[in-house]
Amino acid sequence: MAKHWFPFFKPEKCIHCGNCISACPSRLLYSKTDENRPDLFFPKITDPELCPVNCFDCVRSCPRDVIGIIRPARPCDCCSF
Question: Rounded mean pLDDT of the chain?
Fold first, then answer.
């Protein structure tokens, strides 16, 4: 079964506020420390396949438009849109 969608992150725009991590109702986001800057963290997702479709809580919580959603080019076999 194809995945409907999944989030992606633009770490260069991140201000490391943690809003997205707190906003995730499924607790799929976590902090990943930057190798070059241990004082900074970036959001990562544990498993995009578990991310609820049409949730957008992480996207709405971000003040810097760091999180986007990738949608498939064509509808998958499990949805009707």
Answer: 82
